[in-house]
């Protein structure tokens, strides 16, 4: 939990494509909450581009030790490949998506680097987080703010649509990266963006007129956080004490900006063939990188209804040489004979693509995001949503903005000036005020497996069992909170567990989640076992013993504590999802 003895709050935005950090001093927050410092100094090398975030890329040596992160890692790896030494290194990029939709997240999990060589996932994530922490600690030291890692409230942003296992995995990686557990808060990305926009003056919100009050009580608005990997969408209402209430559980999927890169890559495969694209990616990553950095610039500038051509600067020499070597023709001839021969032409080192073709690369992703938003707005619980807030790096894309404005013409569409930084800066505000979100809507039903006295009118015969001479029903799902239920932050659920056997040494129970609101048995197909909890009893006895267990829901993470009722002693316990 957050404590109040920190000097400053530092937020780390560990993104699919880009990462960064921001911070603010505790005394400044009280007088000027928007005085948030973002690191200005990620230097991309190639172009004179100083950016507020750095690519989420990690370079390790052959002993799997850290060498570089971000632009440094990208640029050094390109040199390593030129020297043909890539077998002596490990290079990872866009690896955060391994935690999305992954049913088997564990601390033993491995990730494959760009050449398919395995490294422990915990190491890849924790070394990357540590690179951000070290960069931050160095920069505050340079500014003469002598601050100790324990005097900082750390906030790590994560998608709200992630599972409990993915959240715990990130927490453990952050702790391994030297962030003290009691000084770490996980923040949900759409929430922090929403908090950030509460503080913005109207002129910083594009699409807001002077009458617009983000802060009026009862205002209901959708927050669509469109990042590199995921679209993460929720609906908030402003309550009378100025806090936020979630009206719809976070929903979303992997239709972020990188899915458009995927479509661009597939188009290049149709033109040049898979083997050639793979060879460039493996053997000339500098050229490959340049190609996608160029496409990144196109993604930010392309507009709906654009006519004519879109120019992309390409690594001509590399592509042409590979075409001659692998396909026996020069690049120009390969493009001319491809399915896109009439829509793409070459002028020097520029590939000129029909604007319509480029816009079509976005279509599946844009359609996906729009239909997600549409589905949520159909829900009865979110009637009277008047505004849609677009945040996250991908929301800066004009095609997305235009599609949202066109589809939801009757709502006010608002895009903050720094849409790509709203999550990060909001995470700093959340670190100062973790109680900003008053209630959240549960994404699953949570409960434990228990037994009850068998009732033939209610229970299925197949679960009938005898325990210590009593006929009981096994595998009952005892519900704590329901899917789609609005739960106050910090809601406590108390449950007592009693021993069934004499001299029982411990109480073992299993925590389950379900995708349905009212599961009956824990082996229903909607249910998944989340974890087992084994509570050791101090001094077992002949008597029936009771253990009081308290679960806390409604925060960004679930927590648990336990007590032996007899002695009043705390029993050490934790939830372990991975």
TrEMBL record:
<comment type="similarity">
    <text>Belongs to the heat shock protein 70 family.</text>
</comment>
<dbReference type="Pfam" id="PF00012">
    <property type="entry name" value="HSP70"/>
</dbReference>
<dbReference type="GO" id="GO:0005524">
    <property type="term" value="F:ATP binding"/>
</dbReference>
<keyword id="KW-0067">ATP-binding</keyword>
<dbReference type="GO" id="GO:0140662">
    <property type="term" value="F:ATP-dependent protein folding chaperone"/>
</dbReference>
<protein>
    <submittedName>
        <fullName>Uncharacterized protein</fullName>
    </submittedName>
</protein>
<dbReference type="InterPro" id="IPR043129">
    <property type="entry name" value="ATPase_NBD"/>
</dbReference>
<keyword id="KW-0547">Nucleotide-binding</keyword>
<dbReference type="InterPro" id="IPR029047">
    <property type="entry name" value="HSP70_peptide-bd_sf"/>
</dbReference>
<dbReference type="InterPro" id="IPR013126">
    <property type="entry name" value="Hsp_70_fam"/>
</dbReference>
């Amino acid at each position: 939990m957050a404590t109040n003895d920190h000097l400053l709050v530092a937020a780390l935005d560990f993104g699919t494509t880009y990462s960064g950090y921001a911070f603010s001093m505790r005394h400044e927050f009280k007088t000027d909450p928007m005085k948030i410092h973002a690191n200005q100094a990620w230097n991309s090398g190639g172009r004179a581009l100083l950016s507020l975030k750095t690519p989420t890329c990690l370079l390790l040596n052959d002993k799997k030790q850290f060498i570089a992160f971000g632009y440094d890692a990208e640029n050094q790896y390109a040199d390593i490949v030129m020297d043909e030494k890539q077998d002596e290194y490990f290079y990872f990029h866009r690896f955060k998506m391994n935690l999305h939709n992954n049913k088997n997240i564990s601390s033993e999990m491995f990730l494959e680097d760009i050449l398919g060589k395995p490294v422990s996932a915990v190491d890849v994530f924790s070394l990357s987080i540590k690179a951000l922490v070290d960069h931050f600690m160095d920069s505050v030291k340079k500014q003469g703010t002598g601050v100790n890692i324990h005097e900082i409230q750390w906030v790590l942003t994560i998608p709200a649509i992630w599972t409990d296992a993915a959240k715990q995995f990130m927490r453990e990686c952050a702790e391994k990266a030297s962030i003290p557990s009691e000084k770490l808060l996980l923040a949900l990305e759409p929430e922090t963006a929403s908090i950030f926009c509460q503080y913005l003056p109207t002129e910083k919100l594009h699409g807001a007129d002077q009458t617009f009050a983000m802060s009026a009580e009862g205002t209901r608005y959708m927050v669509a956080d469109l990042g590199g990997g995921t679209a993460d969408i929720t609906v908030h209402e402003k309550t009378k004490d100025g806090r936020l209430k979630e009206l719809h559980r976070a929903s979303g999927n992997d239709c972020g900006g990188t899915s458009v890169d995927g479509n661009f890559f597939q188009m290049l495969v149709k033109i040049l063939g898979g083997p050639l694209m793979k060879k460039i990616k493996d053997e000339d990553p500098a050229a490959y990188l340049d190609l996608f950095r160029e496409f990144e610039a196109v993604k930010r500038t392309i507009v709906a209804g654009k006519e004519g051509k879109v120019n992309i600067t390409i690594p001509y020499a590399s592509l042409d040489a590979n075409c001659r070597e692998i396909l026996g023709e020069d690049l120009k001839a390969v493009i001319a004979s491809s399915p896109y021969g009439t829509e793409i032409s070459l002028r020097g080192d520029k590939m000129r693509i029909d604007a319509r073709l480029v816009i079509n690369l976005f279509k599946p992703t844009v359609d996906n995001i729009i239909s997600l938003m549409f589905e949520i707005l159909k829900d009865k619980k979110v009637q009277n949503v008047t505004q849609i807030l677009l945040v996250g790096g991908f929301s800066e894309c004009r095609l997305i903005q235009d599609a949202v404005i066109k589809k939801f013409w009757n709502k006010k569409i608002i895009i903050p000036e720094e849409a790509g930084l709203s999550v990060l800066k909001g995470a700093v505000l959340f670190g100062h005020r973790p109680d900003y979100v008053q209630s959240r809507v549960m994404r699953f039903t949570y409960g434990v497996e228990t037994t009850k006295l068998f009732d033939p009118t209610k229970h299925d015969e197949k679960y009938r069992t005898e325990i210590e001479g009593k006929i009981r029903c096994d595998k009952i799902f005892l519900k704590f909170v329901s899917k789609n239920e609005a739960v106050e932050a910090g809601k406590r659920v108390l449950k007592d567990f009693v021993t069934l056997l004499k001299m029982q040494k411990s109480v073992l129970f299993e925590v389950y989640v379900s995708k349905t609101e009212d599961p009956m048995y824990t082996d229903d197909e909607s249910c998944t076992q989340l974890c087992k909890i084994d509570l050791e009893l101090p001094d077992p006895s002949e008597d029936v013993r009771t253990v009081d267990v308290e679960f806390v829901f409604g925060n960004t993470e679930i927590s648990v504590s336990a007590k032996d009722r007899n002695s009043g002693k705390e029993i050490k316990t934790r939830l372990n999802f991975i």
